[in-house]
Amino acid sequence: MAAADFVVVANRLPVDRVEGPDGEEVWRTSPGGLVAALEPMMRNVHGAWVGWAGQADVELAPFEAGGIELVPVPLSAQEVAEYYEGFANDTIWPLYHDVIAPPQYHREWWEAYVTVNRRFAQAAASAVAEGGTVWVHDYQLQLVPQMVREIRPDVTIGYFHHIPFPAHGLYAQLPWRDQVLRGLLGADVIGFQRAQDATYFLTAVRRRLRYEVKGPNVSVPEGDGVRPALAKAFPISIDTAPYLELAGRADIRARAAEIRASLGNPKRILLGVDRLDYTKGIRHRIKAYGELLAEGRLKIEDVTLVQVASPSRERVDAYVHLRDEIELAVSRINGDTDTVGHSAIRYLHQGYPREEMVALYLAADVMLVTALRDGMNLVAKEYVATRVDDRGVLVLSEFTGAADELRQAVRVNPHDIEGLKDAIMTAVEMSPADQGRRMRSLRRRVLDNDVNAWSSSFLAALAEVRAR
Asked: In Å, what is the CA distance from 83 to each residue of 79, 97, 110, 137, 171?
C-alpha cells in the first residue's frame, strides 16, 4: 500500500466483516456516528484508515473497501478484555461521564492500554506519507498523538475527543492523569464537542503539567523550545444529504404511516433511540413516562413510547444490569397500563438500518433525548434533519453537546423527573404553529452546520497551527 497523505486513526475500522448471501466474506460499512461523520471526507481525500477489525486474534493485511485504504490493527482476546472492555470502557468511559457508574482502576488495564496505543501509533506512522496528516479519534487512543510525534515528527497531528472531558475534580482521580494529558498534547490541535470540555482540558493542563496556557493555546515544551497546540470546541454533526433523501422517498413515508398504524394510530408517538448505555438516561425517561400514565396526564389510547435500545458492550457487568433494570421497568408499565389494542411502550433491543430509522423519525411526534451526559448526541440532529415537514418536537437534555446548538428544543434536566414530565407534556401538547417555528430554526442550524463544515473547520485549524 502506498503511503497516504491523510490517515485517520480510530479504535474500529469503518467496516464490519459479515457473511454474504452465498456464504462468502464481505465487508459492510459500520453503523455509528464516527463512521458516518468521516466516511464522506475520506472518500474525497483518498486517505487511509487505521483501526481494529472488531474480531480478536485475527491478523489481516491492509485492504481497500469503499474507496478507502484500510490498515487493520490486531488485538488479542486478552487485549480486548483489558484495553477495550477494561481501561477504555470501565475506566475512562465512566470517569469522563461524570462517574455516573464507578470507574475501575487496574494497573494491568493501563499497561494494555499503553501497549495497544503504541501499536496503533506505529501503524499510523508507517501508513502516513512524508509531511502528511494523522487525525486520531477518541478516548480509546489518547496516547497515540504523542507516540506518533515521537516516531514521525514531520507529520501534522490532530486529535478529536468525541465524548465529554471531565471537570478537574473528577479527572484528578485518574492515576495516569499526567500521561494522558501529555499523550493528547502530542497533537497540534485537540478538538472537543463543547467549549466546556475544552476549558476542563486546559484547566487540567495548567494545574497538572504547569504548561503556559493562553486562551485556547498551549505552549508545549519540545526539545529546547516550545511547540504551539490548540485546544477548542469543534461540534461534530451529521452528513445531512442521505437523511434528506430518505425523508423525501415515498416508500419511507409509507413505512412511517405503517409504523403508526401498527401502534394503533395513537395521537402522539414518542421516540427514544439510544445505545443501551447508562449515560443515555433511558431509565429516567421511562420512569417519567410511566408516572404520566399512572397520574392520568397521558392516556394509553392517545400515546405510545417507542424505545429503540441497540445492544452495547454486553460483556460489561454494568450494561448487563442496566438491560435487566430497563426491561423490568418496561414490563411493569406495560403490565399495569396496556389494553388489548394499545401498548404503553414498544421496546426494541436491536439495531436498525438507516431506512428504518428515518421511517421511525418521520412517524414520531416527539423525540426524547434525555442523556445524563453526552459528547454530542447525533440522534437529535438526525431527527431534526428528517423533519422536512417542519413538524415534530425535540426534547433535549441540557447535558448533551447538541444542547449548545439546538436552542429551540424543549430543554430538560433529566435528573429532575417532575421537570422531565412537564417537558414531555409541553411537547405532546405543542401547537402545530409552535412546532413549525421551533423546527425551522433547528433545521437551519443542522443543515448549515453539517459534517463537512465540521471536518473543514477542524482541518483548517490544523493547517493554521502547523503553519505557525
From this structure: 5, 18, 7, 16, 19
| Sole residue written with cell 496556557 | 213
Cell reading at 16: 464490519
Which residue is listed with cell 492515576?
Answer: 175
Q: How far apart are CA 176 and CA 114, in angstroms?
A: 11
355 CB-side CA count, 13 A: 7
Give the list of residues 6+ apart from residue 368 with CB closer than 8 angstroms, or none: 270, 271, 272, 285, 305, 395, 424
Q: What pLDDT digit, counting tens, does each position of 353-376 carry?
A: 999 999 999 999 999 999 999 999
Q: pLDDT tens for residues 11-46?
A: 999 888 777 777 777 777 776 656 766 776 777 777
The dihedrals phi and psi of 40, each to the nearest 5 degrees, come to: -60, -40
| HSE (side-chain half, CA atoms, 13 Å) at 376 | 26
Helix (H, G, I), strand (E, B) or coil at 194: coil
89: left (phi over 0), alpha (psi -120 to 50) or beta: alpha
d(CA 380, CA 408): 12
Whole-model pTM?
0.94
Nearest to 149 by CA among 174, 122, 109, 114: 122
Q: What angle do CA 313, 316, 317 make, to 5 degrees?
A: 135
Dihedral sign for Cα atoms in the order 402, 170, 315, 289: negative
C-alpha 239/C-alpha 8 separation (Å) is 18
Apex 8 CA angle, 7 and 13, nearest 5: 120
Q: Give pLDDT tens digits for 286-306.
A: 999 999 999 999 999 999 999
d(CA 290, CA 277): 20
